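Internal ticket - ligand job 267, adenosine-5'-triphosphate:
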Amino acid sequence: MAEAAARRGPAITCAGLAKTFGTGPAAVEAVAPVDLTFGAGEMTALVGPSGCGKSTVLRMVAGLETPSAGSVKLDGAEPAALQGAGDLAMAFQDASLLPWRSVRGNVALALKLARRPVELAAVDAMIARVGLAGFEGARPAELSGGMRQRAAIARCLVTQPRVLLLDEPFGAVDELTRARLNADLPALWRAQGTTSMLVTHSVREAVTLADRIIVFSSRPAAVVADIRVPPDLSAETPEGRALVAQVTEALSQGWADDPASGRHAAQ
Ligand SMILES: Nc1ncnc2c1ncn2[C@@H]1O[C@H](COP(=O)(O)OP(=O)(O)OP(=O)(O)O)[C@@H](O)[C@H]1O
Ligand SMILES: [Mg+2]
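stdout (structure tokens):
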């Protein structure tokens, strides 16, 4: 416990954070200036229409994208300060595993890169935790899309990162497995004191997993709602259903602000 407390995740502060891709008439304003602080050890869900800029926000927090304006600070430090030590982990929408390495090899690599001891028992325990026991030796090409996503989550969690950024990590996972992961994984990152951000298109998932839900408008992403989730709320209770309705309503408000967003409606 003492170790978890000492490794507690940082507060994340976005101040005037904005991103425009390209210049001139072809410029795409992806993120409008955003001012948000994410509390240390909190899990925040980001929801919003497809293409509104959620992944761009996450990539800026990870230090993978340079902001056009404003800043991201993790306990006052640049994102780069947490990289390399295995303190910041991100699972992308497309589960980017190394194709020539087994599941075990991919998960162990995260520990190696973080210069941590590679204990095979811990690696295999994490693989089992995401439901991939028996597939330790499989290569990514031999797995389904959802299995690859789960392997990517195991790779993220094995270093016990202080910051965990999940970009639609359960998109290709079936409902039952998703429900199991939703029930199992939060205990892990809560015990680790991780500061987490989760992009999801599932409002129920946001209500189930998050301490707080940020609803973004259509592009450029601007905050339309900032909603606290009571602890241990289940989406199945009347309170949970009311919150799902509130977030869904905020989402539709964000869409209504931008008549052009209708073209994303099919996604
Ligand atoms: N590297 C890039 N170069 C140019 N434009 C980009 C780049 N990355 C993203 N964009 C644009 O920025 C906007 C926001 O993209 P982003 O990927 O952040 O959306 P998103 O909210 O994650 O969408 P989705 O829910 O579909 O994943 C889009 O219009 C996209 O075309
Ligand atoms: Mg995205």
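Auto-summary: The chain has two domains: 2-87+162-264, 94-160. The chain has a mean pLDDT of 87.
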